[in-house]
Amino acid sequence: MMRAAVHLPDGGRGPGRHTVVDLDVLELRAAELVLPEATIRDERGGDLFGDGSLVFDHAQGGGPLVSPELDRQARAFGVVNAAYHTQRALRFVAAVLGRPLPHLVVRIGMHDQPRRWGGGHYRLPGQGAQSDPEAVSPAGEVHLGGGAGFVSTHHTQRYFHAPAHNPAIVSHEVGHHLCRHTADFRLNRLRPPQQQTNKKTALDEGTADVFTAVLLGTPDIYGWHRQAVPEGEQRRRKLDRRWTMAHFQGGRDRDPHTDGTVWASACWTARQRVTEAGFDPGRFDSLLLRGLELAGRDGGKGLAEEALRERRHFSRLVAAMVQVDQHLGPVVLGAMAEHGIHLGISNSDLSRAARAGQDRLVDA
Ligand SMILES: [Zn+2]
User: Fold this and answer.
1) Picking from 130-134, 157-161, 231-235, 357-361, which range would have the lowest pLDDT averaged per residue?
2) How far does Cα 49 stand from its chain's mean position?
3) Whole-angstrom Cα distance, residue 296 to residue 101?
4) Contact 155/15 with Cβ under 8 angstroms?
5) Which SUPFAM superfamilies does the record cross-reference, listed alphabetically (predicted)?
6) Do residues 44 and 109 lie in contact, with contact meaning Cβ atoms separated by under 8 Å?
7) 19/167 Cα distance (integer angstroms)
């Protein structure tokens, strides 16, 4: 165990509370931390950990306007912070599932040319528009940009938005690793390891968001770096009760993050209903994770279009979830119904029904 300074989620609107915690590290290299469950590396290199300490100031994110020394400090903090949140998320999963996910590689400072990148993504080796030109581990990798732009609030100083400093972005990307190795919404396990698909479904994005909300303890997961986006807009991605199947659009051109807010919100409502019914919220978290695992079981249909279509359906994952914890079944189904999600119905039929219901309400 090493002492490490990180941003600890505090349920607030900032990046978290700068706190010293324990981090389980196997090996310390110049710009890389090797943990039992993941390797975190700053691809821009340099000597970040030469003096053997993992306690750094966040230096307001560093960035292009500060001295090289301050930026080095901010990069070091970013590696440590990303390592901590990756370890925290992966250990949470391993404790619930009783098995570890495959070793995850997290690479920071990626895709910063020709323009700076302030986002993150989860990548598998594959072809097509959303694949990476460079070699990617077949088990999956998280890529984080070096940062772009500043976040400022009325009560905090201007902060350079480096994704590795943002627990929400790190947790969301680890959420995709969870999905890939449990529910496997795109059946990547049946594809050749070098020809997997990176195209995400709404379920994948929504599950990554609700996983983030669980880890951060707030439904306003992007309340820090998207604070300029009104809470009532879907792209804020707040897990709000207003997002129902009536807001689901589907289709190739739709951003799966947007449709994913419906799934994430329904899960968050279910978690609240479970708590209101007198259960520990952890009961819901384990129902979700074990439901993902159950939904991932091979249906024996190979890569047929029908098998892929079924795996996109919210109702299929709900069915798996209520199967793993039948005590919570009625509570979870009731909460899902509040968002227009019912068993045995496709996403498009659910969204049509929800819109029709909404129209009736408007008429009345
Ligand atoms: Zn995502």
Assistant:
1) 357-361
2) 27
3) 14
4) no
5) Metalloproteases ('zincins'), catalytic domain (SSF55486)
6) yes
7) 13
State in Å: Cα 119 to ligand 1 middle.
10
Whether residue 183 contacts residue 296, with contact meaning beta carbons closer than 8 Å, is answered with yes
Give the up-direction half-sphere exposure of residue 257: CA atoms within 13 A in the CB hemisphere.
10
The residues, ordered by sequence, that sit 6+ positions from 361 with a Cβ below 8 Å of its Cβ are none
> Partners of 159 in the beta sheet?
151
Which residues have C-beta within 8 Å of that of residue 99, sequence separation ≥ 6?
Answer: none
What is residue 142's three-state secondary structure?
Answer: strand
Contacts of 218 (CB under 8 A, 6+ apart): 9, 11
Here the tokens at position 9 are: 């989620």
Sign of CA dihedral 182, 202, 279, 178: positive
Measure the CA dihedral 177/179/180/181, to 10°.
Answer: 90
CA angle 286, 19, 226 (to 5 degrees): 70
Q: Are 181 and 291 in contact (CB under 8 A)?
A: no
* CA 257 to centroid of ligand 1, rounded, Å: 7
Phi, psi of 59 (to 5 degrees): 50, 35
Residue 2 CA to ligand 1 centre (angstroms) = 30
User: How far does residue 360's CA lie from ligand 1's centre (Å)?
Assistant: 34
CA–CA separation, 327 and 316 (whole Å):
19
Question: What confidence tens digit (pLDDT) does each residue in 59-95 have?
Answer: 999 999 999 999 999 999 999 999 999 999 999 999 9
